[in-house]
Design a protein that fits this description.
Elements lengths: L1 H26 L4 E2 L1 H8 L13 E7 L24 E5 L2 E10 L2 E11 L5 E6 L7 E4 H6 L8 E4 L9 E4 L3 E3 L2 E7 L8 E11 L4 E2 L5 H5 L1 H12 L9 E7 L4 E6 L4 E11 L3 H7 E7 L2 E7 H4 L9 E2 L3 E3 L5 E3 L3 E3 L3 E7 L5 E11 L8 E6 L2 E5 L13 E9 L2 E12 L15 E5 L7 E2 L3 H4 L10 E2 L3 E6 L6 E8 L5 E3 L2 E8 L6 E12 L4 E2 L5 H5 L18 E3 L4 E3 L6 E4 L8 E4 L7 E7 L4 E10 L4 E7 L2 E8 L7 E9 L3 E10 L9 E10 L3
Parallel strand pairs: 1-13
Antiparallel strand pairs: 2-12, 3-4, 4-11, 5-9, 5-10, 5-12, 6-7, 6-11, 8-9, 14-24, 15-23, 16-21, 16-22, 16-24, 17-18, 17-23, 19-20, 20-21, 25-36, 26-36, 27-35, 27-37, 28-33, 28-34, 28-36, 29-30, 29-35, 31-32, 32-33, 38-48, 39-42, 40-41, 41-48, 42-47, 43-46, 43-48, 44-45, 44-47
Helix pairs in contact: 1-2, 2-5
Length: 690
């Protein structure tokens, strides 16, 4: 039954492709762009593999902080990314903020918004210089409750409250001469804020574009329904499938070779067999070579969008199932032959089973090879605690830099955040994407936040799936855990004629470290190149499942922050983290201590170092604590003023070992029924005096 259903899906999509091709010939003149041809393009995977004709330039209009005007200036990382408009106009007595204003033939291809109390005002879209808007409606309803239905119009994550979501519209709105988008807030005195990002195409001069008309929604109702159905069902044809069962010994690779001309891979399905699946997802490297050129190097888990743990998800380009089966649906054409290799860089053997399917493909002068690259920023230092203006050690991370002609089609990030839970300052992703196209000195693409780029909002951790967007796990958004975010592109793909540089800000609120691994997907014409080399060190690095898989419980510049102490022998629910008026923005907190209880913490030091000072606090006055270092009592401390944060305790010079235990015992408290929280802000560690 499963095989029959798979074949039926393949036949359905073969029919869809045939119908699309027939409609393109029937309804569209060569080179003409219209609402209908753009819809048809969305479900024709062939289009992304060909350098665009007619050519278009990718444009982005967003509410990014306009103080970011010069690279390396002190305000380059300014972070007030809402309510930033091109200008404010008075139209017929209405105050309209201009979100987008562009001349030339083009099309809106994606519209994202979020905010506080946002979207209840009026959106107006003016085309081709007309003073009457072609669209005039409530903004939030137009974006995520549009009559075209899901997934063209949707919000994520559906597991979060509606106003905490990112709202996404992928409905194309083409225009022949110009486009202006405005927003009239409900009231100039309201507490509304708006974050927005509009992606658009600007076609080369001479392109024929038919401007959008609302009547086309009714005229193309059947096609709109078909697009929604195809985007939501990511299967491809199974003709010419090549089933495989490969053994992967330690340090070896196994491969599949396809030598038939005039084909393109349209799906690769893999299931891993062996011990320690998590390690296997990084140990096994996918390497693809097309016509003698290797264009793909990526750990298998990141390639399929699941990181180094199995997290089920489904997009238009990927699917990960709970049983471990993983599939990608990128169309990968080749002129003569290709090889798909799997390299085992780990310490145990694995076995892979799966299937590769192909379809016929006409190679032309515009045909491009599929590429995927990966790197990991391991134990990346995030800088100091941040201010909204951006001070505190923000920086730009390079995802990839490409040379030649091609199209950028998506990316996946897998990260492990070591910040501590329960507070928005644990959020790692305030950074904005910055994309430099064709040698730009200033990026024409600047966003409003990492989570905004990936289609959601407000660092929400709930999982979600969408044909172009997915967060199969978001645990690392608010605590020490893993996050995987995906953004794939269709009409919003970014072509380039000479080069593309994709940077993402590292804008983590607190001083910490994290592992951050971006995977990038793109097509290049033969001769194009990438700056990313195979990152074997990153792939072999220790996998992070706990903070101390990345952090070290050691002093830095003489100070060991309390939150970096290892907690020994208790359930994690018995401790937490304190965020007010403490060093580093966070302190380690033993919650709800009972009389006579102890807690033990551990840290490392050089044997020639000494502990000279403790910064402590308690939630109650007159709580008395016994503190022992390496089994020797060094202090009885009484919290006499719980409003003083922290209280500094001088210890003189207490000798340290290589590994040290700090044991805290609650001896007494003023009121037996009073809840007691004990906070370690930091330890001062000095070199031992001669």
């Amino acid at each position: 039954m499963m095989l029959r259903n798979f074949i039926m899906v393949g036949l359905f999509l073969c029919v869809v492709t045939t119908v699309v091709e027939a409609k393109l010939k029937k309804n569209g003149k060569k080179g003409e762009v219209s609402f209908r041809t753009l819809l048809e393009e969305m479900i024709d995977r062939d289009v992304l593999t060909r350098y665009p004709d007619p050519y278009y330039t990718f444009k982005q209009f967003s509410s990014y902080d306009r103080r970011s005007t010069a690279i390396n200036d002190s305000t380059w990382f300014a972070n007030s990314d809402c309510d930033q408009f091109i200008r404010v106009e008075n139209n017929c007595g209405r105050e309209e903020s201009v979100l987008m204003d562009t001349n030339g033939a083009g099309s809106i291809v994606r519209f994202w918004i979020t905010g506080n109390n946002h979207g209840a005002g009026t959106l107006r879209i003016y085309l081709d210089g007309n003073t009457e808007p072609v669209i005039e409606t409530k903004l939030i309803d137009f974006i995520s409750k549009n009559e075209v239905g899901m997934p063209l119009s949707s919000s994520v994550s559906p597991k979060t409250s509606y106003m905490r979501r990112g709202h996404n519209l992928y409905l194309p709105i083409p225009y022949a001469k110009s486009c202006k988008v405005t927003y009239e807030m409900r009231s100039v005195n309201s507490d509304e804020t708006l974050y927005y990002c509009i992606n658009a195409r600007e076609y080369a001069k001479g392109a024929k574009v038919v401007s959008f008309s609302p009547k086309e929604l009714e005229q193309n109702k059947a096609l709109i329904r078909q697009v929604n159905e195809v985007l939501s069902s990511n299967g491809t044809a199974v003709a010419d499938g090549k089933v495989f069962d490969l053994q992967l010994p330690i340090g070896k690779e196994a491969s599949l070779k396809l030598v038939q001309e005039g084909l393109a891979i349209n799906s690769v399905s893999v299931k891993i067999h062996g011990d320690n699946l998590k390690r296997a997802l990084r140990d096994i490297i996918v390497k693809c070579t097309f016509d003698g050129e290797q264009t793909v190097w990526c750990p298998i888990g990141d390639f399929f969008g699941t990181g180094y743990e199995l997290h089920p998800s489904e997009t238009f380009y990927t699917k990960v199932e709970a049983d471990g089966n993983m599939t990608v649906y990128w169309l990968m054409p080749y002129l003569k032959n290709c090889t798909i290799a799997f390299e085992n860089i780990g310490n145990v053997a694995y076995r892979l089973t799966g299937n590769v399917t192909t379809q016929s493909y006409e190679w032309t002068k515009n045909s491009m090879y599929f590429h995927a690259s990966w790197k990991q920023y391991t134990a990346l230092s995030t800088g100091e605690n941040k201010a909204r203006i951006g001070y505190g050690g923000c920086f730009d991370m390079n995802f990839v830099t490409l040379s030649g002609k091609g199209v950028y089609v998506g990316d996946v990030i897998t990260l492990f955040n070591t910040s501590l839970g329960g507070h928005w300052k644990s959020w790692w992703g305030e950074g904005d994407e910055k994309v430099y196209l064709d040698g730009e000195e200033f990026p024409s693409v600047i966003g409003t936040g990492t989570e905004d780029y990936y289609g959601y909002a407000w660092c929400e951790y709930a999982p979600f799936n969408h044909p172009y967007l997915s967060q199969p796990i978001g645990g690392g958004n608010f605590k020490f855990d893993m996050t995987v975010n995906m953004r794939y592109r269709g009409l919003d793909a970014m072509p380039f004629a000479k080069s593309l540089k994709f940077d993402m800000e590292m804008w983590h609120w607190t001083k910490t470290r994290l592992n951050f691994a971006p995977t990038t997907f793109y097509y290049l014409l033969p001769g194009g190149s990438s700056n990313i080399e195979p990152d074997y060190d990153g792939a072999k690095a220790k996998l992070a499942f706990d903070r101390f898989d990345i952090l070290k419980a050691e002093a830095e510049d003489g100070k060991l922050e309390g939150e970096n102490l290892r907690v020994i022998g208790v359930d994690k629910n018995t401790y937490g983290f304190y965020h007010d008026n403490v060093s580093g923005g966070v302190g380690l907190m033993w919650r709800n201590g009972e009389l006579g209880e102890t807690r033990t913490f551990e840290f490392d030091a050089d044997t020639y170092c000494v502990l000279s000072q403790l910064a402590l606090a308690s939630s109650i006055p007159n709580g008395v604590y016994e503190i022992a270092l390496n089994g020797e009592i060094i202090l009885e401390w009484s919290s006499t003023d719980c409003n003083k944060m922290p209280q500094l305790v001088e210890l003189g010079k207490v000798k340290l070992q290589r590994t040290n235990t700090l044991r805290v015992k609650l001896l007494s408290k003023k009121n037996d029924d009073e809840s007691c929280d004990f906070i370690i802000d930091y330890l001062l560690i000095d070199e031992k005096a001669e």
